[in-house]
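Quick entry between incubations.
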Amino acid sequence: MDSLEESGRYERQIRLFGVEGQKSLKKATALVVGAGGLGSSVTAYLAVAGMGRIIVVDGDVVEISNLNRQILHGARDVGRSKAVSAAETVLGLNPEVDVEAVALFADEDNLADLVSEADLVIDALDNFPARYLLNRAAIEIGVPLFHGAISGFNGQATTVIPEKTPCLRCIFPRSPPKETSPALGATCGVIGSIQASEAIKYLAGKGELLGGRLLIWDGLRAECDEIPIERNPRCGDCGVEEF
Amino acid sequence: MIIRLKAYARFRDLLDREMEVDLPEGSTVFDLMKKLASRSVDLDNQIFDSSGRVREDVNIMVNGRHSESLNGPDTALAAGDEVALFSAVVGG
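Done. Structure below.
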């Protein structure tokens, strides 16, 4: 029996995608950029699913006002690095995960190196300028990007597969205005779970990914819509046509 | 000509989820927005800023392509086009 089966930890999901699927997770590295509300939800579910390695990137420190939604951090973590706190929580959830804390804000100088270490990238950021940098790095290096964003009861998600699907800049060619969004932990849970589910499906080779579709979650109505999206051949990040 | 309009996110509070809009031939995205804005002050405020431009947080897709990557508000519409109107969220 394979060691992944022996422990029994993954027994209920090996039923979904087999030992081979589980090995795909075990071999993979996920880069989670942002250890806030979305990052908490995504990271927790990737960790317990048996992701081999998780790199958590966040230059911020935990504040008391984060604790309504950022479930990787607790009251004792206020004032501590989010990346470090997240890594500790991951090890508590699943000590089999090789987790690395990177206590830096994602920027042009560090993203290419970080993305090049990963098999997939989770966008758990809170602003579009940084998202565009991540989008570009993921496309240039050729790894999938799992986008999520929230505000209050509302959320959105999509999956970007380089050279196959529209990228984030195809969908949003200009940055939405910066805002300090109202945030509910449960909404982060919904959208972060979708991102984690997409990442696991991608690695296990299961189902149909959210590429070419922007999922819109309306929590107040408890409704989910999707907007079909086309690639922009002249996209500044993934376009194939010359300007 | 008839345009199919789908409203998402906060626009669902002000518009039907899916509707048909009758516009003169040669109308643009801006014309469509003006027609929608004429329905109520709330819609006007949600679509246009104080200088009369489409708000930056309003996203308009025409047949799956963002209007800003087409010809912006001047993007020409054709009968049967499907236009999606939504606001992006940015938080994490």
